[in-house]
Amino acid sequence: MKALLLLPAMFCLLVLSACGLSRGTHEPIRSYVLEIEEGGEALETDASRPMNVPTLLVSLPQPAPGFESQRMAYEQVPHELRYFATSQWVDSPARMLAPLITTTLETGNDWASVIQLPSVVRGDYRLDISQVALVQEFTQQPSRIRLTLRAQLMTVFDPRVIGTRNFEFREEAPSEDAYGGVEAAHNAVREFLVELKQWLHNTLQTRQSSHG
Fold first, then answer.
1. Whether the Cβ atoms of residue 145 and residue 77 lie closer than 8 Å to each other
2. How far apart, in whole angstroms, are the C-alpha atoms of residue 54 and residue 204?
3. Which CATH number is 54-210 given?
4. At 79, is the pLDDT very low, low, confident or very high (cuts 50, 70, 90)?
5. Torsion of CA 118, 119, 120, 126, to 10 degrees
6. Number of Cβ atoms within 10 Å of the Cβ of 157
7. Which residue, 178, 144, 180, is CA-closest to 27?
């Protein structure tokens, strides 16, 4: 009976340790970055890229409420955001996604160029990313990272929404701490970038087919 009573307490201690909630320690603040290793697909050259392909403008991704800063978020109960005491991102998750999105979409031959806004370049399409949220969930074991966001593709010269999609990804953390969440976040971001690129390709193909 005593062993059974100890199980909830042991679980609580595990979660508290993982979340770095103790204020009595003098641990240094650890900062983490979202980055994707380059490799595999190379940039298309002008000679290999088809003629008359459009230019894509990419606006700066916008965070969901509670994710505007570099603080690293987690949940122990649904819908209640908390933040790690000694771990943080180097920037907000939304801002860290910006260069990763641009670099990913530069590969392949769907776009003549991919331009990060603000820019004086007048593109053909604009990609808006909003409601970016990245949180580690300790509501189950193992914990997991949840990445959610909304993507919208618009025409520029005659502003019109031609595609909208909500993305959601969950990846299990390899360890019950902030660094485990960082590793899981990288997996979630990789999956998002693959799906975003494919979604944009399909949306563009559908539009071009409908316009002859």
1. no
2. 10
3. 3.40.50.10610
4. very high
5. -80
6. 9
7. 178
Taking alpha carbons only, the member of 136, 146, 140 closest to residue 73 is: 136
Residue 18 reports pLDDT greater than 50 = no
What does the DSSP assignment read for the chain? -HHHHHHHHHHHHHHHHHHT--SSS-PPPEEE-------SSPBPPTTTSPTTPPEEEEPPP-BPTT-SSSEEEEESSTT-EEEEEEEEESS-HHHHHHHHHHHHHHBBSS-SEEEESS-S---SEEEEEEEEEEEEE-SSSS-EEEEEEEEEEEETTTTEEEEEEEEEEEEE-SSSSHHHHHHHHHHHHHHHHHHHHHHHHHHHHHHHHHT-
Tens digit of each residue's pLDDT (9 = 90 or more) over 52-78: 899 999 999 999 999 999 999 999 999
Q: Please count the CA atoms within 13 angstroms of the CA of 25 that sit on its side-chain side.
A: 9
Residue 78: count of CB within 10 angstroms of its CB: 7
Q: For residue range 96-115, what is the model confidence (pLDDT) as tens digits? A: 999 999 999 999 889 999 99
Pick the range with the lowest mean pLDDT from 43-52, 88-97, 142-151: 43-52
Residue 156 has phi, psi (to 5 degrees) of -100, -55
Rounded to two decimals, the pTM is 0.83
